[in-house]
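Retry 2 of 3 after timeout on previous attempt. Resubmitting structure tokens to design endpoint.
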């Protein structure tokens, strides 16, 4: 989806953490940024979950945000359309995938 968007240019520049790339620079630039590569650990989000579907005291390895949608669908017993996220990537944080949630 990223590579086919009309806003994706022919050239993509990615700076190292702590650096920014500008077309031109003037006073006041550099006061904010949208972040860096999502592979940079500093850019990883924190995810906390509690409730009857989740294991207590469980610590999950890093996962992609797109996996939250199928996770929410699973714990809410919703039938969801096919998406890029996969429940298999986060299912180990759940108590029992086959047990219905009350």
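Retry 2 succeeded. Sequence:
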């Amino acid at each position: 989806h990223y590579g086919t968007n009309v806003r994706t240019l022919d050239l993509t520049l990615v700076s190292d953490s702590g650096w920014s790339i500008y077309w031109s620079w003037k006073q006041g630039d550099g006061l904010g940024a949208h972040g860096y590569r999502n592979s940079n650990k500093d850019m990883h989000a924190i995810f906390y979950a509690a409730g009857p579907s989740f294991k207590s005291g469980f610590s999950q390895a890093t996962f992609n945000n797109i996996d939250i949608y199928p996770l929410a669908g699973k714990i809410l017993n919703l039938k969801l359309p096919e998406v890029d996220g996969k429940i298999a990537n986060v299912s180990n944080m759940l108590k029992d995938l086959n047990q219905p949630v009350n």
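Attempt log closed. The mean pLDDT is 83.
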